[in-house]
Specification:
By secondary structure, the protein is of the alpha+beta class. The chain is built from 15 helices and 14 strands. The strands form 5 sheets. The chain has a 5-stranded antiparallel β-sheet. A 3-stranded antiparallel β-sheet has the order 3-2-9. The protein has a two-stranded antiparallel ribbon with strand order 1-14. Strand 7 and strand 8 form a beta hairpin. Helix 3 packs across helix 5. The protein is extended, with a radius of gyration of 41 Å. The C terminus is likely disordered.
Length: about 625
């Protein structure tokens, strides 16, 4: 097969671009964006127009859910992956690469990658973009994740995925000269507001840039260059990502003639497009009548029927002179039909069913129970979940392309930074391609929570754990109910926290450390003295327990030596005191020998400092 020329590529792109399916889809994109930017509704000349903000508020709310959703990046352990370190390195590389891509977008004055993708997923119903590793002029690698507006994308696919994708932008002649060193002229001399068309083309093996000037003359902004990007199977693939939102597959009509291309990858406004026009119409009628109540129509009755007023009679303090025989009469007031309120209420209810309920915006028209509010809120899942699945699939494509390209080699070590999980500290680490060898597949999840969900999730987790027989293991509850990113580190953090308070000495050390760090050394010395006394008491107790244990062993002949029978005492001689091996029984207290202590417990034992002197046998001897 002959290699495609640049002219062949441009012809292929323009043919697909002008095909009916892409044209109708672009028309729908533009109409939906008009709803989002609140293009003014026109009720006609002489009537008041009302434009609802419901489309924009709905889209912004869903975008907020996606932008603030908790993303977890995990490399699950398998039977083939025994080393957790490689998985941790891969997770850190992905998190750090995504952070670097966001920082790059911020330098360009653009929203973060996730915010842009949330915008396109909600308003377009599609996502697209470029994901690849590139090199600076000095050879250092950088992460290039650039979302594309699906409005300006065309492509072809087969059973293996994307064959090629082209992204269209408009640039000024000066920008093209700076970026590609190409001189172009606008179609109209001195006019360049519409810009020059630039096609960024990606196939499974090559990437190039085509510039089409005002005279439809093609110039090469970048020659076709091999990008060497491969998929997990080692097959060449285009370094781009693309996908549609929603469960609907591609539908081809047979005899209906319906434009099914518009239905594949729908936006958030799919169920409410016509309802917004009906709402604007009804509210415009209300607004017109309110305006007419302020400036009520009137009629002028004059002898010849030609008299007009030179001033506005409705302005404060206005005086209107009238010729003789002329009279001004108010016309009958026009009111809305009785069923208008019911009609507007029906439209509002259908808009809520097609979007989000008013409860999701914090609006309660009347007092309802918490259970009822929860039911109304759960009715919004049909709008949130497809978008969450869409952004999850998008990030899955992005991370697979980036990691596979890095693992293939050709790039030096990359310094990545970010936060591994909610409880881990911020990391700034250099990772080499060899560090990712042996790591498992990537698992990405987005958890969308509403503020009112937090207490209920905590209560559910506690209920599943309580009782003699928990309903689920702690690890499962943390991961699936509380949506903890790294369960292992979360478990270790809980264990460390319990260790600080379970052992008194560990608690004292924690208190001392906190006081020292806050500069309260005087108070810290109090706890240091308490720690010293506690440790000394523990040491004394341990010594006494060791001695008692040795005595018991000697008593039962388990000390490793044969027990010796005590010699009978000589007349007039007291029997020797028994003590542990190697210890003179005469210096061991009666308590150490197993006898209960007698006397006042507040008084020191006899023979010790502060105690009474040696006891004297009253019978003599």
């Amino acid at each position: 097969m002959a290699k495609e020329t640049l002219e062949d590529i441009l012809h292929k792109i323009e043919t697909i671009w002008e095909s009916p399916g892409f044209r109708t889809r672009r028309t729908r994109y533009e109409e939906d964006y008009g709803l989002y930017r609140m293009n003014a509704y026109d009720a006609g000349t002489g009537y008041q127009s009302y434009t609802s903000n419901a489309p924009k508020i709905l889209a912004d709310k869903i975008m907020s859910y996606l932008s603030n959703a908790q993303m977890s990046v995990r490399v699950p352990m398998t039977t083939k992956v025994d080393d957790r370190d490689a998985g941790n390195k891969k997770e850190k590389f992905i998190i750090g690469a995504l952070n670097l891509a966001d920082e790059r977008m911020q330098r360009y004055g653009q929203p973060s990658v996730r915010e842009q993708l949330a915008f396109y997923i909600v308003l377009r119903g599609w996502y697209a973009g470029r994901a690849m590793l590139n090199k600076h002029s000095d050879g250092t690698p950088f992460v290039d994740i650039t979302p594309f507006d699906p409005l300006h994308v065309c492509y072809e696919m087969d059973e293996k995925g994307i064959i090629w994708l082209a992204h269209k932008t408009k640039r000024s002649p000066s920008a093209i000269k700076s970026m590609y060193n190409v001189d172009v002229e606008p179609a109209v001399e001195g006019e360049s507001s519409s810009g020059i068309t630039v096609w960024d083309y990606y196939s499974r093996e090559e990437n190039g840039v085509l510039v089409v000037d005002g005279d439809d003359e093609m110039q090469v902004g970048k020659k076709l260059t091999k990008h060497n990007v491969k998929d997990a199977n080692g097959e060449p693939c285009a370094p781009v990502f693309l996908g549609a939102v929603g469960p609907a597959p591609w539908i081809q009509d047979e005899i209906s003639g319906d434009d099914t291309a518009r239905d594949y990858g729908e936006s958030i406004f799919a169920a409410n497009r016509e309802l917004y026009n009906d709402l604007n119409f009804a509210m415009s009628a209300y607004k017109t009548l309110v305006r007419r109540a302020v400036r009520r129509p009137y009629k002028i009755i004059s002898p010849d029927g030609t008299t007009t007023l030179d001033a506005d009679p409705w302005q404060d303090g206005s005086e209107v002179p009238l010729p003789a025989g002329t009279d001004i009469r108010l016309m009958d007031e026009v009111t809305m039909p009785l069923d208008t309120a019911a009609f507007v209420g029906m439209i509002s209810g259908e808009i809520q069913r097609g979007g989000l309920s008013n409860v999701s915006y914090g609006e309660l028209p009347f007092a309802i129970s918490g259970f009822a509010a929860r039911i109304l809120q759960e009715g919004s899942a049909h709008q949130i979940e497809p978008r969450v699945k869409g952004i999850t699939a998008c990030y899955k494509q992005i991370t697979e392309i980036i990691t596979m390209q890095y693992e293939m080699g050709g790039f030096g070590p990359m310094e990545v930074r970010g936060r591994h999980n909610d409880i881990a500290s911020y990391f700034n680490e250099e990772i080499k391609p060899s560090d990712l060898e042996g790591a498992g597949a990537i698992d990405i999840k987005f958890g969308v929570r509403m503020p009112q969900d937090e207490p209920q999730l905590v209560t559910m987790a506690q209920m599943m754990r309580d009782g003699p027989r928990p309903l689920a293991p702690d690890e499962w509850i943390w991961e699936n109910i509380l949506q903890i990113n790294d369960v292992d580190q979360f478990k270790n953090a809980i264990s460390a926290q319990q260790a600080h308070v379970t052992e008194p000495k560990a608690l004292l050390l924690t208190l001392i450390e906190g006081l020292m760090q806050t500069g309260e050394q005087d108070k810290a010395m109090i706890y240091i003295d308490m720690l010293r006394k506690t440790m000394k008491e523990d040491q004394q107790k341990e010594t006494a327990q060791d001695l008692e244990f040795q005595r018991i062993l000697q008593q039962f002949g388990l000390g490793g030596q044969a027990p010796q029978r005590p010699q009978p005492p000589q007349p007039g001689q007291q029997p020797p005191r028994q003590g542990p091996p190697g210890v003179n029984g005469g210096v061991v207290s009666s308590q150490m020998q197993g006898f209960p202590r007698v006397g006042d417990p507040r008084q020191a034992p006899p023979g010790t400092p502060g105690g009474p002197g040696p006891r004297v046998n009253p019978m003599g001897g």
